[in-house]
């Protein structure tokens, strides 16, 4: 008998079974989204997906809702012990009434309940100013409206703002980064917003703040992180890009935009860039980095798998997939309860019938760049500001980006306050100001990009002109065709224009409006739209507007 060997072997095997050698890699799952904009309820826009029944065609899949998003996050977290939930900004601001009526406190509570860990700030986090953003983080009652729905304790998740510098202290307004350890391996999350934030936010919102170059900011942090032993770096950045028309949510076709150059200039040590701002879905690999975006309004969730080298701490592999957050998917009860709580408070206001419309007002542009909704809102502004006490406006003008949803009346043709709020959630006062005819023409030219494509100003029905992208920059509008109230344009005459404060401050590239003189402040844009619809004026046919593209 030789019992010694089998006995020894079985001991070795037993020992092996109880203490396996650690895997050389650590798997981490990141769950990421962006541009949630307080969409606690499923938004009315879905996600285009390939139609399983008609090859080559697409169908619109209803998607989003905080309950569905939370349920999906919960399931993915349960299956992946090493995880972090992250976001790339614009989680609040420009939100539906359900959240906005309470200064987005409901959205902060919902994001905490779904387990968000970190988010970059976006431009919309500054809609109500830096002090209000700090209140979102740290809690407290609103300075004017108090604690409308009980005490507000602030976000448990951490807002990150590496490139937003408080001019008084010279330091970031909120922490620049956070570090999480997964089985001992550190991963850094750096948060930033677009440096163009001051151009797209009301001036008051960004007072006393500097917005620095994104790539330079994060590159300067790399040695700081390396000193702390961090080699895996995830950037949460509220800036993005776009694919070519018709690309899928996991494609990276014809990808372009500000983010391309920013990523190109980023340090090689950076592994993943979770992006946003453009409200687009994509899944790219740029300069060896994973670059993702999850559309907007919680309709898509990005899962990002990182494989970390346990000894070096570096990311050795990354993959990502954009998942549709199906509206008919499982719903998280805690989110449903939260929505019900605020819905009970907002319902009377939300359901208030404002008036009737003969048809849906859409943001779909004619070749000239005109939209039914834009024209109606500009007409409403003109109607509100025509009065001498508001500066005797002659023209209404609004930017298409300020109109956040189409307006669809119900079967009886009625529209409700909650719908109007979703269209114009920014609480902009209207301003009447004067431009000379010459300046008005320059303003018209400021809506074209370098290629002559148009980011359309939406004018009241009494403005007509013809334009062509083929003519050189600065001469795209045919001056001879420019008419206001049926009269030929006059270079020397002063024109009184009613615009939202955002445009009056030069937002969306309307720099010429900062020269506007003799300013009169009027009502909130939303109130002027509600009054206009209530008056029945909006129900009259809007007529064809003479903004015509010639090429
Ligand atoms: Zn944004």
UniProtKB/TrEMBL annotation:
Any Pfam family: Metallophos
SUPFAM superfamilies linked to this entry: 5'-nucleotidase (syn. UDP-sugar hydrolase), C-terminal domain (SSF55816), Metallo-dependent phosphatases (SSF56300)
Signal peptide residues on this chain, from the entry's feature table: 1-17
InterPro entries named among the record's database cross-references: 5'-Nucleotdase_C, 5'-Nucleotdase_C_sf, 5_nucleotidase/apyrase, Calcineurin-like_PHP, Metallo-depent_PP-like
Residue stretches making up the 5'-Nucleotidase C-terminal domain: 354-514
The Calcineurin-like phosphoesterase domain, residue ranges: 29-281
Keywords for the protein's UniProt record, in alphabetical order: Hydrolase, Nucleotide-binding, Signal
GO BP, one annotated term: nucleotide catabolic process
Single GO MF annotation: nucleotide binding
Keyword Signal found: yes
PANTHER family recorded: 5'-NUCLEOTIDASE (PTHR11575:SF24), 5'-NUCLEOTIDASE-RELATED (PTHR11575)
Family classification: Belongs to the 5'-nucleotidase family.
Name of the protein this chain belongs to: Bifunctional metallophosphatase/5'-nucleotidase
